[in-house]
Specification:
heterodimer; A: 119 residues; mainly beta; 5-stranded parallel β-sheet; 16 strands; 0% helix; globular; B: 162 residues; Pectate Lyase C-like
Chain lengths: 119, 162
């Protein structure tokens, strides 16, 4: 069981807005889902901001990640994810993509931390 | 996968890292280390490609403030394009190792503390139309490599030392 502030599994067409995650192990966990947007959210401290697993058509924008220990956004085995206009400060990695396709990372601001890592 | 038009400051290891990946586009990003850090204590790379094939790196600006080991660090990769990037004030501008089919065209490698470009065990590549100036080491250093073309580059005021 993944512990997270918000968990979405087998969900389609959802928007998460104006949410603050502070010191959760994972802020938002999204699995086997599609058409998910996360907008104007804040992720402070914690191990991971957003963990996206096996999902499609997702968008993360105008979010703020600060002092997240490991990956601010971890995109695993997913397709068609857009990450834009976010701010990442003092994080481990901004965006980590693994076994994923069609990820777009545009117009973000990264300060202190690795911006993008893909495997 | 694309990484475009991002602003990236004060990264700790690599600014943009691509490992065991294909068809990654890295375009129009600004990477900069503003805070002075000792290069022998921090292993920082602007763009780090390892086993990253069919990768395009274009229109990026990588400024290391002499705190970054390599502006661009390439290992064991094939079919890469580097075009119109500005790589300034790093250790080496670019360090490429054990790779092939690399196109390095119309880039600027200047004011780096080591070599402008350091190329080892690289084959079937072209280095064309680059401005490589004011590097403290050698402009283009090629070792143990074969089948490469170096043409129409501007090399000025390199190998000046400290």
């Amino acid at each position: 069981m993944i512990t997270a502030g918000i968990r979405l599994e087998n969900v389609s067409n959802a928007v998460i807005e104006n949410f603050t995650s502070q010191s959760n192990k994972i802020g938002i966990y999204v699995a086997n889902s599609s058409n998910i947007s996360v907008k104007d959210c804040e992720f402070l401290n914690g191990y991971m901001g957003i963990y996206l697993y096996n999902s499609t058509h997702t968008k993360f924008y105008f979010d703020n990640f600060s002092s997240v220990n490991r990956n601010s956004i971890y995109i695993y085995s997913s397709k068609d994810a857009v990450v834009e206009h976010n701010k990442f400060s003092n994080v481990g990695v901004g965006v980590f993509g693994k076994y994923s396709k069609e990820i777009k990372i545009e117009k973000n601001y990264f300060d202190k931390g690795e911006a993008f890592s893909a495997v | 996968m694309s990484v475009e038009n991002n602003t990236i400051y004060e990264y700790k290891d690599g600014g943009i890292v691509s490992r065991i990946s294909e068809h990654v586009k890295i375009v129009g990003n600004k990477l900069s280390i503003r805070e002075k850090r000792p290069m022998d204590k921090w292993s920082i790379y602007g763009i780090d490609l390892y086993s990253s094939n069919f990768t395009i790196v274009k229109d990026n600006k990588i400024v290391g403030n002499y705190s970054q080991v390599n502006g661009i660090w390439v290992r064991e990769s094939e079919n890469l394009t580097f075009n119109k990037n500005y790589i300034l004030r790093n250790g080496n501008g670019m360090y490429a190792l054990l790779s092939s089919n690399i196109s390095i065209e119309s880039n600027e490698f200047s004011f780096n503390k080591g070599e402008g470009m350091n190329i080892l065990y690289v084959s079937s590549s072209i280095i064309r139309g680059n401005n490589i100036t004011h590097n403290h080491g050698i402009g283009i250093s090629l070792h143990d490599s074969f089948g490469n073309v170096i043409t129409e580059n501007l090399l000025l005021f390199n190998y000046l030392g400290d």
